[in-house]
Design a protein that fits this description.
The protein is an alpha/beta fold. The chain has one domain (about 1-85): Response regulator (Rossmann fold). The protein has 4 helices and 4 strands, in the order βαβαβαβα. It has a 4-stranded parallel β-sheet with strand order 2-1-3-4, with helices on both faces. The longest helix has 17 residues, at about 10-30. The chain is globular, with a radius of gyration of 12 Å. The protein starts with a strand and ends with a helix. The mean pLDDT is about 95.
Length: about 90
């Protein structure tokens, strides 16, 4: 499974979201290849992703950037909240 964490610039926020997504997956007993990306590179970065994690503020821009995709876009309110991320990933991945 491939997951991409996306923020506007692709440096700080997406790295935090990436690490916390890995922690949430670990708590769920799941493994995935999680990477970080900026908005400008998300189409390439998420070409084979099943899940894209981003903020509510960026979700529409991510949808525009990736065009048609089978990846589910999950909107995360608090990048530091491993429980929130875990709950949303569990709901998505079943």
């Amino acid at each position: 499974m491939r997951i991409v964490a996306v923020c506007g610039v692709g440096v700080g926020s997406s790295a935090i979201l990436k690490v916390n997504a890995e922690r949430a997956l670990d708590k769920l007993g799941l493994t995935a290849d999680v990477s970080a990306s900026d908005l400008a590179s998300v189409a390439d970065a998420a070409a084979d992703a099943q899940v894209i994690l981003t903020s509510t503020e960026l979700a529409d821009r991510v949808r525009e950037a990736i065009g048609r995709s089978y990846a589910e876009i999950i909107e995360v309110v608090n990048y530091f909240d491993v429980e929130e991320i875990g709950e949303k990933l569990e709901a998505s991945l079943g």
